[in-house]
Fold this sequence. Notes:
Blueprint: E1 26-28, E2 31-37, E3 41-47, E4 51-57, H1 63-66, E5 70-80, E6 87-91, E7 97-101, E8 115-121, E9 131-137, E10 146-157, E11 165-168, E12 171-174
Antiparallel strand pairs: 1-4, 2-3, 3-10, 4-9, 5-8, 5-10, 6-7, 6-9, 11-12
Amino acid sequence: MNEDEIPGRNFIKAGRFPSAWKDSWTHAGGFARTLADPDYGYYLLMNDKAVVTQIFQTADFTAAQLEKAWYGLSFQYENYGDGSNSKVIIITGDGIEQPIDLSGKIPDKPMADWNYFPPYPLTNIIADYEIITIELHGSDLKESSGLRMTDVNIQLHLEPLKLSRLQVDEVPYEV
């Protein structure tokens, strides 16, 4: 049996930053705008300490349901020009910040145009939280240098189901 996860819906809206990205994201300070790569598609360029934010509604789970489930944040990025201040901050329902520093992170494939950031587990999430905030912080550089991001994705990862019994045409089979 294949154990690959089937992705659910992305909790983030407009994570590829189409032209109407500001319908789902807010922008404060600095410079943030979308650009289109002919091969890859849309991405967001942020610099001069721009902050781009989205607040998403969590799944309506009980504490028992959330016990073996976790939210994972993934994205594609490039810190073009290696400026400092490039980061993602996750803010939980009680205001606790979980920063992901992208300034000093050496990518797995430094020559690649885009570096995949694998699912990062959002920790200490409890069932009482109704919202979680994601902040993208652009680098302190200016002009064409800055943090470039796309494919921002938050998935709710559930505990894998375990088959305990199978019944076909009213005939039960043990597994």
